Amino acid sequence: MPGPMTIFELGQRAMSAQLVRMNAAASNLANAGSIAASEGEAYRPLRPVFAEQLDAATGLSSVRVAGVQRADVAPVRRHDPGHPLADENGDVWASPVDENAEMVEMLEASRQYQNMVEALSTAKQLMLETMRMK
């Protein structure tokens, strides 16, 4: 049976979750404006799904990544008969990525990650100071 969760394990889980958020946003930004020949082939944004995980030994609650899903948002149909991927009606399908929202998501995840780095650094310093006092 595993021991109780430490502050460092809790921080590692939180930082991992923020990395998943940043990677999903980066993938979405990389595919913003991409064009496909059909609605089914069009890129749809990735969204991480998180779940709460309770540590019975300490009562601490942490986050875990339950998965990454495609957003349920329709691609944008655009009439562009000159495009090489245009269908018989002259339409192409653009990814429905909102670049501003993805940038906000990436910045927020980055800030949360940095906050955890600072919290863990402070915890480490406090532990070292406590050890020096003994």
Automatic annotation (TrEMBL):
InterPro entries: Flag_bb_rod_N, Flg_bb/hook_C_dom, FlgC. The keyword S-adenosyl-L-methionine does not apply. GO terms for cellular component: bacterial-type flagellum basal body, rod. Coiled coil: none annotated. Residues 11-32 form the Flagellar basal body rod protein N-terminal domain. Keywords: Bacterial flagellum, Cell projection, Cilium, Flagellum. GO terms for biological process: bacterial-type flagellum-dependent cell motility. Residues 92-132 form the Flagellar basal-body/hook protein C-terminal domain. The keyword Transferase does not apply. It is found in: Bacterial flagellum basal body. Belongs to the flagella basal body rod proteins family. The basal body constitutes a major portion of the flagellar organelle and consists of four rings (L,P,S, and M) mounted on a central rod. The rod consists of about 26 subunits of FlgG in the distal portion, and FlgB, FlgC and FlgF are thought to build up the proximal portion of the rod with about 6 subunits each. This is Flagellar basal-body rod protein FlgC.
